């Protein structure tokens, strides 16, 4: 009778373990595809600021390459 709790704990542990494995799989797949971890809570403003920053960095790199030639 002392081992009855194991009947519930074992499936619960398996389910929790599978959830952790799937969460980590999503993290590593996204990191492999995009080269960086996924940002949590990215909204339209954040995406627009990322595009703006990328464009500014590209323009700065192009300007510095043109001035060095």
UniProtKB/TrEMBL annotation:
Pfam families linked to this entry: MWFE
Lineage: superkingdom: Eukaryota
Residue intervals passing through the bilayer: 12-29
Compartments it resides in: Mitochondrion inner membrane
Keywords for this protein: Electron transport, Membrane, Mitochondrion, Mitochondrion inner membrane, Respiratory chain, Transmembrane, Transmembrane helix, Transport
Membrane topology recorded in Swiss-Prot or TrEMBL: Single-pass membrane protein
An example Gene Ontology CC term for this record: mitochondrial inner membrane
PANTHER family from the UniProt entry: NADH DEHYDROGENASE [UBIQUINONE] 1 ALPHA SUBCOMPLEX SUBUNIT 1, NADH-UBIQUINONE OXIDOREDUCTASE MWFE SUBUNIT
Function statement: Accessory subunit of the mitochondrial membrane respiratory chain NADH dehydrogenase (Complex I), that is believed not to be involved in catalysis. Complex I functions in the transfer of electrons from NADH to the respiratory chain. The immediate electron acceptor for the enzyme is believed to be ubiquinone.
The family this protein is said to belong to: Belongs to the complex I NDUFA1 subunit family.
Annotated protein name in UniProt: NADH dehydrogenase [ubiquinone] 1 alpha subcomplex subunit 1
């Amino acid at each position: 009778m002392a081992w009855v709790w194991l009947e519930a704990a074992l499936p619960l542990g398996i389910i929790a373990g599978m959830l952790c494995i799937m969460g980590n799989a999503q993290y590593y797949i996204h990191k492999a595809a995009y080269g960086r971890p996924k940002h949590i809570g990215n909204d339209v403003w954040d995406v627009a600021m990322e595009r703006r920053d990328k464009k500014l960095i590209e323009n700065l790199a192009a300007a510095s390459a043109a001035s060095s030639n």
